[in-house]
Write a structure and sequence with these properties.
about 550 residues, alpha/beta, eight-stranded parallel barrel, 16 strands, binds phosphoenolpyruvate, binds magnesium ion
Length: about 550
């Protein structure tokens, strides 16, 4: 059994035989031609043929992956007609008297390199599109029929890379999964794989290519990006179990997709996802979350050996927002300290770190670090619907200090001509009893509250959440906690703010009805709980006498 690690681009599991996708195209040779006029005419004819084949692919994609994703082939058709590209090819044929195949290939390489050199990851991924389009033109010049590999049974397709047109040309019913040595998360191939709901892993590296053979058995785990070659019996059985679970989820998803989360008596509840990194976005989309209710930004700091720069952070926040178009994304400012330590912060050893310099306290004592994060967040806000929330608030003065720094950051952004959205929602986590008890004073200052029940439980019951021996004393349904949540909900609504829960208790479905009766507007849970929670909400009738209170 050999395991190769890549990046999962679509969360699902495939197990079965593999087929190694080898391109049949011959390398492009440089030939001298005598009649450049005729060669340019040959190029023009090949372009027409390429457009007509792309039109066919567009039709196929429309059926299989929907209009938005089929658009890629419209873009490819436009690329065939791109003036700069065509001028460069024609000029090369005429001035160097070379064959059209060669001129297209060299021009495509130049254009692809230009895209690769761009800073933006999305633009870099366009290099693959240029190569795909030029390969199509070259295929038409050579009068080859198709770029699609022929497959006769269900297989996991393994390749060095796959072009969007190759991906769509494959017989979807026969493809169990895709695994490629190269490729990028933003490539259209990855996007198409996601939309075709096919387990896909990219970037497993060149080594895998030399070890795979047609007919080898493998598992492709699109959740964690693992490609297991020659799995043992246990690994196969595990994969089968997970496939069955996924199937159950899929059925639930089919039932709920696109539907609002409405109780039987008509109350609409938002069900969002909690995530800690960009890697989890796939699971968020797969489970059809209504938004992201908690992005634990501190993981960006924990993964680094030094403070992440404004630019690094901006890119991550922008990606999260762009992945969730028109949906709310709530990013919590860093919650470093206590159990989440990063060496480069050089924090003093504390007797009681959970009661120490953590979260907003740390941000307020290191305003430059805080401002760097806020600048990155506000800049990213131009790319979606952002909410910013502060963790571990215990007083009005802390909140006012944090809000004042936000204002300062916005002023600086205006001054430096940087764009940001003016409708960024600001909120706080209610995770200390103090915050819940003064929630009437805090609510007028914010747009929303989000209850962090993990810490609220720890601080209310004086139970260290890290101490496994305290489990018996740590009653998450304790009346004190429920009262604090209820009080916060009343105060939020009295001042026009909305309220959610993002701690683990949000996924405790024995409490869902209780929370809804308290007036909770949003529940944010790990992606794997989303569908079950949505199903639970749809079975609750708040017009009936309470069952669980
Ligand atoms: C919480 O305290 O409930 C919470 C969501 O924050 P974290 O678990 O990251 O401390
Ligand atoms: Mg917390």
């Amino acid at each position: 059994m050999t395991i190769f690690k890549g990046t999962g681009v679509y969360g699902a599991i495939a197990a079965g035989k593999i087929a190694v996708f080898k391109r049949t195209q011959m390398p492009v040779k440089r030939d001298k031609i005598k009649n450049p006029v005729a060669e340019v005419a040959r190029f023009e004819t090949a372009k027409k043929e390429a457009v007509s084949r792309l039109r066919e692919l567009h039709k196929k994609a429309l059926k299989e992956v929907g209009e938005a994703n089929a658009q890629i082939f419209e873009i490819h058709m436009m690329m065939v007609d791109d003036e700069d590209f065509n001028e460069a090819v024609t000029e090369m044929i005429q001035s160097q008297c070379v064959n059209a195949e060669y001129a297209v290939s060299v021009t495509a390489d130049n254009f692809a390199e230009m895209f690769t050199a761009m800073e933006d990851a999305y633009m870099q991924a366009r290099a693959a599109d240029v190569r795909d389009v030029s390969n199509r033109i070259i295929t038409c010049l050579k009068s080859d029929d198709s770029l699609a590999p022929q497959i006769t049974e269900q297989v996991i397709i393994c390749a060095d890379d796959l072009a969007p047109s190759e991906t769509v040309s494959l017989d979807k019913d026969k493809v169990l999964g895709f695994v490629t040595a190269h490729g990028s998360y933003n490539s259209h191939t990855a996007i198409l794989a996601r939309n075709m709901s096919i387990p896909a892993i990219i970037g497993v590296g060149d080594a895998f290519l030399s070890q795979i053979r047609d007919g080898d058995v493998a598992i492709a785990d699109g959740f964690n990006g693992e490609f297991v070659l020659h799995p043992d019996k246990e690994a196969l059985a595990r994969a089968e179990r997970r496939q069955a679970e996924e199937l159950e989820k899929k059925e639930l998803l089919q039932k709920l997709k696109g539907k609002d989360n409405i109780t039987l008596d008509g109350r609409k509840i938002q069900v969002y996802a909690n995530i800690g990194s960009l890697d989890h976005i796939g699971a968020v989309l797969l489970n059809d979350a209504g938004g992201i209710g908690l992005f634990r930004s501190e993981f960006l700091y924990l993964e680094n050996d030094d403070y992440p720069s404004e630019e690094e952070q901006f890119k991550v926040y922008k990606r999260v927002l762009e992945s969730m178009p028109a949906k709310k994304v709530i990013i919590r400012t860093m919650d470093i300290g206590a159990d989440k330590q990063a060496d480069y912060f050089h924090l003093d050893r504390e007797e009681n770190p959970a009661l120490g310099l953590r979260a907003i306290r740390l941000c307020l004592t290191r305003p430059e670090v805080f401002k760097t994060q806020l600048r990155a967040l506000y800049r990213a806000s131009a790319f979606g619907k952002l909410g910013i929330m502060f963790p571990m608030i215990t007083s009005v003065s802390e909140l006012k200090a944090a809000l004042a720094i936000c204002d300062q950051v916005k002023r600086e952004l205006i001054f430096t001509g940087k764009k940001y959205a003016t409708d960024v929602e600001l909120g706080i986590m209610i995770e200390t009893p103090a915050a819940a008890l003064i929630s009437d004073r805090l609510a007028p200052l914010v747009d929303f509250f989000s209850i962090g029940t993990n810490d609220l439980t720890q601080y209310t019951l004086a139970c260290d959440r890290q101490n496994p021996h305290l489990e018996a004393f740590c009653d998450t349904h304790h009346e004190a906690i429920l009262r604090l949540i209820s009080l916060s909900a009343q105060n939020a609504h009295a001042h026009g703010a909305w309220i959610g829960i993002c701690g683990e208790l949000a996924a405790d479905m024995t409490l869902t009805e209780t929370f809804l009766r308290m007036g909770i507007d949003e529940l944010s849970v790990s992606p794997s709980f989303i569908l079950k929670l949505r199903d639970t909400i749809r079975q609750i009738d708040l017009s009936l006498p309470p069952k669980h209170l």
